[in-house]
Design a protein that fits this description.
The chain is mainly alpha-helical. The chain is 82% helix and 0% strand. It has 6 helices and no strands.
Length: 161
């Protein structure tokens, strides 16, 4: 069993020699759990920071309610993970949930859509389509005004006769 555990830890990247780390399996598992908690919290924080940078760089972007809810849940789970630091199993659960919620907030469909298709891009796509439609309407309106003027002059001539 010790060989299996040492190979599993080696696969996970845990140091195997006594000089670079603890020899007890329980201590190694405890250390791995604590490291994973920190990684989850760090990744959650990075996701939230990226959302802040995105919303600051794109001023016209609207934050959907789903994203706001996920951000609130993420912050709540981060606080719970920190509060439960003595119970590493609960802390691990809360940090994992915080990571899930932060990923959901960051990759929210409406947010991603707004980030990759801002209003300038929509205008650039629609402008070539609006050009021909607007030109037809403008030239049609000019022809209508011209026809009305000519009709008005014809009516004036008939009135004068």
């Amino acid at each position: 069993m010790n060989i299996f555990i040492s190979q599993l830890f080696h696969l996970l990247g845990v140091p195997s020699s006594a000089s670079t780390g603890p020899t007890s399996t329980l201590i190694k598992v405890d250390s791995l759990t604590r490291i994973q908690i920190l990684k989850n919290l760090k990744e959650s924080k990075a996701n939230l920071h990226s959302l802040i940078k995105l919303s600051e760089s794109l001023n016209e972007i609207t934050i959907p309610e789903e994203t706001k809810t996920m951000i609130d849940l993420t912050l709540d789970k981060i606080n719970q993970a920190i509060a439960q630091a003595k119970d590493i199993h609960k802390s691990m659960e809360f940090s994992a949930q915080a990571l899930i919620y932060s990923n959901k907030a960051f990759f929210e469909e409406k947010m991603v859509q707004q980030a990759y298709f801002p209003n300038e891009h929509k205008l650039a796509v629609l402008l070539p389509l609006l050009g021909p439609v607007c030109s037809i309407m403008i030239f049609g309106s000019l022809k209508l005004v011209k026809d009305l003027k000519s009709l008005n002059t014809v009516l004036k001539k008939k009135k004068d006769e």
